[in-house]
Amino acid sequence: MIRRLWTKFWGPAGAVSLGLLVIASFAGGIIFWGGFNTAMEHANTQEFCISCHEMNDTPFQEYKASVHFMNASGVGASCPDCHVPKPWIPKIIAKVRASKDLYHHLLGTLDTPEKYEAHRAEMAKRVWAEMEATDSLVCRNCHNETHMDFAKQKPEAAKLMKAGFERGDTCIDCHKGIAHKLPDLSQGYRKLFEEMEAIAAASPPKGDTVFPIATLPLYHAAADAKAEKDGIGQVLAGTPLKVIDHDGEMLKVRVTGWQQDQVDQVVYALRGQRIFEATIEKAAVDVIQNVSTETDPETALVWHAITLEGWVAPGKLIGNSDLLWGYTAEMYGAACGTCHSKPDPGHYLSNQWIGTLKSMKRFITLDKDEYRILQKYLQLNAKDTAEGAHHG
Questions:
Q1: Between helices 321-336 and 186-202, what is the axis angle to 10°?
Q2: pLDDT at 16 over 70
Q3: pLDDT at residue 388, rounded to an integer
Q4: For residues 327 and 315, what is the distance between their CA atoms, to the nearest angstrom?
Q5: What are the domain boundaries of the chain?
Q6: Beta carbons within 10 angstroms of residue 151's beta carbon
Q7: What are phi and psi of 304, to 5 degrees?
Q8: pTM of the predicted model, to two decimals?
């Protein structure tokens, strides 16, 4: 049986059949590859990208107002130039990932301007993350550091570009919004804050230690806290409060911190570090109890380890500090990571962060409480703060 098949296969008729099979397979492969490549190239055109109204009505119109569409030299970059890598394997990976766009087109996820705006931040973050992961490969297809003539750039731009290259930044770190409208990244951290507010308002916090999510008045007695009058000071957001007594829903708490000699009204988190925890009215400084006194060997300043007790009302307290610092980390990324690469909190000393953040204050839109908790987050994660690993 096997011998007959072998003879038939290798006989004259079999050889012809084999030849035809090889030719047909080769031709079929060419046709398949040609069809696949044609479809791939068509899917890699700007016309294809904007063929659905979701892309044409919003992002394409934004792109048309950008320098990548119209400029003095007349050299433009189209949708696939910025969103599809040129190397074959990364291109295939990008196309596979893009299949979800067809799925959401069928679902109508972005079929109105309102829906598009609701998802803008999510989509932008995803694209930014992909570009960071590839060191902005699609940007570098056209923009090459070795071919840049910094002398022809504006002095400030050249200075920032050189500093970015030295730090190892990638293009998208500083050039977000280059072709499309920037999303409102405050939506993310403000949603987290609303969730914390709901938790704080729903029930009294559990645990021996609680954390205010915003600046909280401090009172001498439970009755004052309940009536919200005659406050003796304020506790800043993020300050650990040790619960030592209850009177109904009112909580008696203890703050542990440091006080610089002759600076009676301010309590700091750490000796020598101006990380604000609480402030006390001048008439109430006697409530601060001195535990010990030390001299900072680096500055020769005298510091007192202290405790401070008072009453607070519920409503702005949570028992899980991870929620608070997660919210603050999200705020840091949104406020300080859009126009440039945000520095690692450990890049600066704790006290340096005060001036560093203040120098950028005019570029960010944070209210007073948001600014204070952001500064505290950065200081607690600074180069010289031992407790930094516990916050962030």
A1: 160
A2: no
A3: 44
A4: 18
A5: 46-179, 204-318, 321-390
A6: 7
A7: -115, 125
A8: 0.74
Radius of gyration of the chain (CA): 31
Domain 46-179 annotated CATH 1.10.3820 = yes
Given a cut of 60, whether residue 61 has pLDDT beyond it is yes
- Answer for the pair 362, 231: CB distance below 8 angstroms, yes or no: no
Q: Is the pLDDT of residue 391 over 50?
A: no
Distances (CA, A) of 125 to 82, 136, 167, 236: 15, 14, 22, 31
Rounded CA separation 278/237 (Å): 9
Helices then strands, counting H and E runs in the chain, come out as 16, 10
The sign of the dihedral angle between the CA atoms of 83, 87, 93, 96 is: positive
Nearest to 116 by CA among 203, 55, 69: 55
14 alpha-carbon distance from chain centroid: 67
Q: How many CB atoms lie within 10 A of CB 364?
A: 17
CATH number of 321-390: 1.10.760
Nearest to 372 by CA among 269, 301, 259, 287: 269
Q: For residue 160, what pLDDT band results from cuts at 50, 70 and 90?
A: confident
- Using the predicted structure, report yes or no on whether residue 100 has a pLDDT greater than 60: yes
pLDDT of residue 2: 64
Spell out a b/e string for 9-32, using b for 16 or more CB atoms within 10 Å of the CB, else e.
eeeeeeeeeeeeeeeeeeeeeeee
Task: Give the CA diameter of the chain.
Answer: 113
Tokens of 32: 């398949």
Contact status, residue 232 vs residue 280, Cβ threshold 8 Å: yes
What rounded mean pLDDT belongs to the chain? 87
Angular region, 156: left φ>0, alpha ψ -120 to 50, beta rest: alpha
Type of residue numbered 246: H
